[in-house]
Design a protein that fits this description.
Elements (H helix, E strand, L loop, with lengths): L1 H37 L3 H7 L4 H40 L5 H32 L11 H31 L2
C-alpha cells in the first residue's frame, strides 16, 4: 500500500503543479500580447503596419485567447484523467481513508463541472465577443466574466483542496 500512497502523492503533485502552471500561462498570454505591442521588433512593426495598432492588438489578443482555449480544454480533460486515477487509487487503499476519498471525489466533481459545464460556455461566449468593441460592453461581456469568475473560484477551491490533501498524504505517509 506504500506504493499506492506514493503514486497518489505523485499524481496529486502533478495535478497541483499543472493548476499553478495554467494560472501562470493564462495570465501571461495577454500580457505578452501587450508587451509585443509596446515594444515590437522592427520587422513585426513593418508587417502589421497596415493593420494599425488597434487591429494588431485585436489579432494578438485573439491568438492569446485561442491558445488559452486550447490549453484549458487539454487541462480540463487531463484533470479528469488525473482525478479519476487518483480517486481509484484512494478507493483501493486499505484501510480506506474517508477524508481523502471525499476530498478526491470533490476535486474530481469540481473538474467535471468546470470542464463539461462552465468551460464550454466561456469558450463560446469568448468567441462571440472576441472582436466586438468593448465600449459599450457587448451584451455577453458580463456573463463571460461571471463564468470566468466562477471558473477561477472553483479552480481555486480545487487547488486549495489538492494542496491540503497533498500535505495530509505526505504527513501521514
Amino acid at each position: 500500500m506504500a506504493r499506492v500512497q506514493g503514486i497518489s502523492i505523485a499524481i496529486l503533485s502533478l495535478w497541483v503543479g499543472w493548476t499553478l502552471f495554467m494560472w501562470f500561462a493564462a495570465t501571461r498570454s495577454f500580457r505578452t500580447a501587450d508587451r509585443v505591442l509596446n515594444s515590437p521588433p522592427p520587422e513585426f512593426r513593418r508587417i502589421v503596419q497596415s493593420l494599425g495598432p488597434e487591429h494588431t492588438r485585436g489579432v494578438l489578443r485573439y491568438l492569446a485567447s485561442e491558445i488559452n482555449r486550447t490549453y484549458f480544454r487539454a487541462y480540463g480533460w487531463g484533470q479528469i484523467v488525473l482525478g479519476s486515477v487518483l480517486l481509484a487509487l484512494v478507493w483501493l487503499k486499505t484501510p480506506r481513508d474517508s477524508f481523502t476519498l471525499v476530498v478526491s471525489a470533490s476535486m474530481l466533481f469540481i473538474v467535471l463541472v468546470l470542464t463539461l459545464g462552465v468551460m464550454p460556455q466561456i469558450i463560446a461566449l469568448g468567441r462571440n465577443i472576441d472582436f466586438l468593441p468593448r465600449t459599450p460592453a457587448p451584451p455577453d461581456y458580463q456573463r463571460f466574466w461571471k463564468l470566468h469568475a466562477i471558473f477561477t473560484g472553483l479552480d481555486g477551491v480545487k487547488l486549495l483542496a489538492g494542496i491540503a490533501l497533498l500535505v495530509r498524504l505526505i504527513a501521514f505517509r
